[in-house]
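Lab notebook, bench 4. We co-purified these components, and the gel suggests they stay together. Before we commit to crystallization screens, I want a quick structural picture of the whole thing.
Request: model the full complex, all chains together.
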Amino acid sequence: MIEPARFLSDLHTLRGFGAAGVGKGVVRPAYSQADIAARQWLAAQFRDAGLRVQMDAMGNLFGLREGPSLLLGSHSDSQPEGGWLDGALGVVAALEVARACNAGGGPPVSVVSFQDEEGRFGVTTGSAVWSGQLSLEEADALTDHAGVALGDARAAMAQMVTGDIDPSRFTGFIEMHIEQGPTLDASGEQIGVVTDIVGIRDMKITFDGQQNHAGTTPMALRRDAFQAVSSFNTLLNDRLRNVVTPQSVWTIGHVSLHPNASSIVPGRAVFSMQWRDADAARLARMEEIIRETAAEVASERGMQLGYGPLLGLEPVQMDARLQAALCRAAEEVAPGRWRRMPSGALHDATNLSRLMPVAMLFVPSIGGISHAFEEDTDEKDLAAGLDVLFRAVNSLK
Amino acid sequence: MIEPARFLSDLHTLRGFGAAGVGKGVVRPAYSQADIAARQWLAAQFRDAGLRVQMDAMGNLFGLREGPSLLLGSHSDSQPEGGWLDGALGVVAALEVARACNAGGGPPVSVVSFQDEEGRFGVTTGSAVWSGQLSLEEADALTDHAGVALGDARAAMAQMVTGDIDPSRFTGFIEMHIEQGPTLDASGEQIGVVTDIVGIRDMKITFDGQQNHAGTTPMALRRDAFQAVSSFNTLLNDRLRNVVTPQSVWTIGHVSLHPNASSIVPGRAVFSMQWRDADAARLARMEEIIRETAAEVASERGMQLGYGPLLGLEPVQMDARLQAALCRAAEEVAPGRWRRMPSGALHDATNLSRLMPVAMLFVPSIGGISHAFEEDTDEKDLAAGLDVLFRAVNSLK
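Here is the predicted assembly.
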């Protein structure tokens, strides 16, 4: 049987590698000394749980059952200023479930901690390489903000590498994670069973107008790039409301004006436009509205309109059978206090969906806070999530 | 009589000090080698015109007639990337008018080139010190973008300094300048007689909301600081239209989002709000609307609202008698092709209005462009401006 106290104790021990900041903060970016020490400790726990420890060249750490098995896990690297749960929760929950299953004759369970999910070098880099969406050669050329190449950074854990792990040995993948949003915390629910991981579109938009003196240029003769952005934003908010669902999101998170001075009418604005939805058709419809609105604003205001490259990550549906097992278990553990919901954030499960059936479950994030030292979840909810994962896995045998 | 060819030749000679960039560009910031050489050349021209050359400690350069005289001029320093006219036009026109008046028995005219009008160190620094609104000690402590103190920079022209020049010797000040806006160029007019130099209000406004994950935070739960700025801007544009005139302007020229990343809902926005009008009461009414609108947006969107210090420069009315002389002369030189208009930009005349009657006249800026290498004015319009200045001065004797 699972032991919630042991699971929580392991979580606190893992937090000790890179413990920092206020509350339960952690600084454990991929390939840092804290990350390597954490993986060495995890490898020892995997071994003690009767699993065979393997690490691939990227630093993805596996604890393997022989023969076909269900893979559970997440990632143990953190954001530059991260919390104690995030990916660590899914790894330690997987360890506890594997321990219980191995000891108690449950279904065969293997465990994984992927590397660089937090994107020191890219986006979910470790699982992207393992799932074949990024070559090791391409990954090695990626650099972090300080200019360090991934190829050089991963040399620091080379002594732990054993070789490739064949994905075909796994029958599916379940990832437990904190929600990283406010939905469950606000509703007082304990469990979210993920239906889809949303797709993302992201592009830079540029309006080029006319830089001018903010005193001598009459309002009627201005071609003010900030006014274009603001007008675009206002129109877009109105228009998107006709096509979106409450789960759709869109964000202008980055705005750069030129020359960005109080006495000068801005001649140029470059801004980010990002939108996410679980439905690829809706993402496309949103894109149409974005482009139509930008073109209309540019034409009305005498702006040149430019687009950067469109980043596109497709939405991923969770596997129906694994999802159903999680729903049944959630109803047993937290009757009436769980919901189906999309994941607005990317996860390693996105990459693994190319290889095998995947599913995810969420526990609440207090205040919706994550990627911050303050990130936390009530220990009762952590234990409930562990229980749901364990029951779901057992129901699949 | 004035000699337009000599005047244009002098303008081109002065452009040679710091000539740079495309077209007729100039790089001649205050106290640069080019600026000092230009002032040495100007001093020689003043002397040749029968004027007594004086320079105060700031580097304001005067060519003086004995006894009471009308002061004409502007400034010969330039923006870091400036044009050949800007302040240089007013100085060279003043020189030509003084030359003609001295030779032809016209009214006594003195000439000035103020220092650092373009604000390497402050705002119209030279005339601010001369008019007593800034002490030399305060000015010396001002630093440029590179950290150089004005007190150190002005040492480079110390050998030219002769001593203070008493403002009470002057009966008034007339400054000829390029418009630096598109109004005259767009209407095909040759002369603008300035009615007022507008007042300015400028402050930073801050909205503090909640930084969040752009994927996991539902739209309805966001406190997005960029959305607050955009909403404020849209509401403000609507509301100001009820109180402004076609000469009023307002500008959001600087926007800084935090953390300014495409995947993060911005938690904080700091932006500049600047407005200008010739009527102090209207400036105050605009401020009320700005503060009401910001407070309303903050309250509706759960933002903390903050204000930086309010920069206030009062509007200045041009002297009625000097203005009337310019209008009569403009109608003689360019019948039906001139207008009364406010100045949306600050000028040395703003400071001098504390000391004596002041007036200004504008010539067109092609395309409304200034503070750029491309700045230019048709030579016919330059000559027309010179003629208006000369006739107005003579009508005042």
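Chain B is about 35% helix and 20% strand. Worth comparing against the SEC data before the next meeting. Chain B touches chain A through 57 residues (CB under 8 Å).
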